[in-house]
Amino acid sequence: MKRAAISKLIYQNIKDHKLQLKKQFLASRNQIGYFYLDALLPKEIALEIYNKFPNIAHTVERKSLREQKFTAYQMNAYDALLEEVVFAFQDKKVVQLISEICGIKELLPDANLYAGGISLMRKDSFLNPHLDNSHDKDRENWRVLNLLYYVSPDWKSENGGNLELWPHGLQKKQLRIESKFNRLVVMATHQNSWHSVSKITENQVRCCVSNYYFSKEPVLPSDVFHVTTFRGWPSEKLKDIILQIDNKIRSSVRYLFKKGIRENPHQYKK
Questions:
Q1: If the chain, 270 residues long, is cut into consecutive pieces of 10 residues, what is the mean pLDDT of each piece?
Q2: In this predicted structure, what is the pLDDT of residue 255?
Q3: Looking at residue 71, which CATH number applies to its domain?
Q4: Residue 183 falls within a domain, yes or no?
Q5: By Cβ atoms counted within 10 A, which residue in 38, 45, 154, 225 is the most buried?
Q6: Alpha-carbon distances, residue 243 vs 55, 130, 228, 232 (angstroms)
Q7: CB 36 within 8 A of CB 186
Q8: Which of 127, 126, 86 is nearest to 270 (CA)?
Q9: Where are the beta strands (DSSP E) in the chain?
Q10: Rounded-to-integer distance, Cα 65 and Cα 235, Å
């Protein structure tokens, strides 16, 4: 399928549920605004997308104290369907519709896929509580929305790999959103939008299509520039201290060098 056909399906389904999704986002906006929609695409299309995901051996591994996952962003190196579905979420009508739901004006999709594209997580993969980098690759626009579309069939909550939101901070109980097959999650990104992905406990692979939307203005007037900022889970006291030191070091580097010492390789170079 081509992206125009996929985006048309995405647009129509979101439009059909617009009032419900807007209500969900507004109800959570004072903490971390979010909404999710199940059965986003016809089941057979979602399964086809999943079946086209590359083998982990052909992806980029990210492994550190902060995270353990696999990413792919040079989309022309993989099956064409994956590029089509990634960019279907960047269709103007889809972007405008989500803008209306979330009440965020002049959303900008990211053709560079800066931290976007697709991701895979297998047994023992995780993503520690964190704030996403506040800006795009050129540090000109604010990162304001994170779109996650899950395509692993028969995924169960007990498998782990679920999205965790921390609307009341890391010392309060998190909100868990299951990485359910054919589910789209849209969440706001700002200086209070702490989120994580729980460790995967089963020998299965969680596959996700991800996009970010940017804007000239931040979600919160109080937002300030920050690098991707990691913390430990509440039970990880020592790790939390180490990650806070790591955050300060990386922030200092970005203070001295606006775009970092080297260009972030996680971007689609056509």
A1: 97 98 96 97 98 97 97 97 98 98 95 95 98 92 98 96 97 96 98 97 97 96 94 97 95 72 80
A2: 72
A3: 2.60.120.620
A4: yes
A5: 45
A6: 30, 10, 11, 7
A7: yes
A8: 86
A9: 34-37, 60-63, 67-72, 108-109, 117-121, 126-131, 142-150, 163-165, 175-177, 183-188, 195-197, 206-215, 229-230
A10: 14
Tokens of 48: 């086809």
Instruction: Provide DSSP, 135-182.
Output: B-TTS-SEEEEEEEEE--TT--GGG---EEE-TT-TTSPPEEE---TT
Which tokens sit at 91? 């269709």
Owning domain of residue 9: 3-256
- How many CB atoms lie under 10 A from the CB of residue 240? 18
The answer as to whether 268 is a domain residue is no
Tokens matching residue 219: 């979600």
Q: How far apart are CA 231 and CA 251, in angstroms?
A: 14
Residue with tokens 């519709």: 97
The per-residue pLDDT for 265 is 85
If phi over 0 gives left and psi between -120 and 50 gives alpha, with beta otherwise, what is residue 56? alpha
In a domain, 261, yes or no: no
| Any domain includes 45 | yes
Instruction: Find how far residue 259's CA is from the centre of its chain.
Output: 21
Q: What sign does the dihedral 196-36-82-4 (CA atoms) show?
A: negative
Q: How far apart are CA 25 and CA 65, in angstroms?
A: 32
Q: What is the pLDDT of residue 138?
A: 87
Angle at 257 between CA 255 and CA 260, to 5 degrees: 105
Residue 72 has a pLDDT of 97
